[in-house]
Amino acid sequence: MKRTTLRTYLLLSFIASAFLGVIVYYGTRRPDEPFLESANLAIVSAGITFIVTLVVIATLELASKDDSTPADKPRLK
Fold first, then answer.
1. CB 35 within 8 A of CB 25
2. Nearest-CA neighbor of 55 among 28, 16, 18?
């Protein structure tokens, strides 16, 4: 079984946070405000999403157990 790396977890977390950040930015912006004033909520939301996603993925990885039984042998007897 291929072992996943930290780079994979960071990439998945970044993609999730970028996706949510774009949705929050375009959902809450006002056309008459400057970019940074409308982007504050999106940046905070993306940061929180990045951290939460990273923690959830790492916790799920710790909770899973590698299967050491051979594929040609039955698990139950």
1. no
2. 16
Please work out, in degrees rounded to the nearest 5, the angle formed at the alpha carbon of residue 23 by the alpha carbons of 41 and 49. 60
Q: pLDDT truncated to tens, each residue of the chain (77 aa)?
A: 467 788 999 999 999 999 999 999 999 888 888 888 778 999 999 999 999 999 999 899 888 877 777 778 877 76
What is the SS3 assignment for 5?
A: coil
User: What's 77's DSSP letter?
Assistant: -
Rounded to the nearest 10°, the torsion over CA 65, 50, 26, 34 is -170
13, 57 Cβ separation under 8 angstroms: yes
**What pTM does this model have?**
0.76
Give the number of other CB atoms < 10 A from CB of residue 49. Answer: 19
